[in-house]
């Protein structure tokens, strides 16, 4: 039953160029630095903000005034500072904005501030 060594299949591996890093490895570095769950939560919050801004301004994305709600900036402020900053950003909005502000402040509770981009 033993097969002859000359008839066995062989698998050969070629050495890859170490200077080019595969895309999946770069993604791995990102999820190591930032927990995947935190990244997903932040993305969900940003999508929620986008949808709520459409409702608040009752228009298409192109028509929404230039408005940037920086989650990291909010996380650096006190609770009252967060509320004040959001009211400043939304002062052009004619609709009631308290529900949006309360909803956003609730969603960012416990979220951690993300540091800047990775340095090589």
Automatic annotation (TrEMBL):
Signal sequence extent: none
Keyword Acyltransferase: no
TM spans (from-to): none
UniProt region (Disordered), positions on chain: 1-20
Gene Ontology cellular component terms for the protein in this record: cytoplasm
Keywords: Acetylation, Phosphoprotein, Protein phosphatase inhibitor
GO MF, one annotated term: protein serine/threonine phosphatase inhibitor activity
InterPro entries, alphabetized: CPI-17 (IPR008025), CPI-17_sf (IPR036658)
Coiled-coil segments: none
Biased composition (Polar residues): 1-11
One GO BP: innate immune response
Gene3D superfamilies (UniProt xref): CPI-17
Family assignment from sequence similarity: Belongs to the PP1 inhibitor family.
This protein's name: Protein phosphatase 1 regulatory subunit 14B
Gene name, Swiss-Prot/TrEMBL: ppp1r14d
């Amino acid at each position: 039953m033993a097969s002859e060594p000359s008839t066995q299949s062989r698998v050969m591996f070629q050495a890859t160029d170490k200077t080019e890093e595969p895309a999946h490895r770069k993604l791995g570095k990102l999820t190591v630095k930032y927990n995947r769950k935190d990244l997903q939560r932040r993305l969900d919050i940003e999508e929620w903000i986008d949808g709520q801004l459409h409702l608040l301004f009752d228009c298409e994305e192109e028509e929404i005034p230039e408005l940037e709600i920086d989650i990291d900036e909010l996380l650096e402020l006190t609770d009252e500072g967060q509320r004040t900053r959001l009211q400043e950003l939304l002062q052009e909005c004619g609709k009631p904005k308290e529900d949006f502000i309360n909803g956003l402040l609730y969603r960012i509770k416990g979220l951690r501030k993300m540091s800047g981009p990775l340095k090589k």
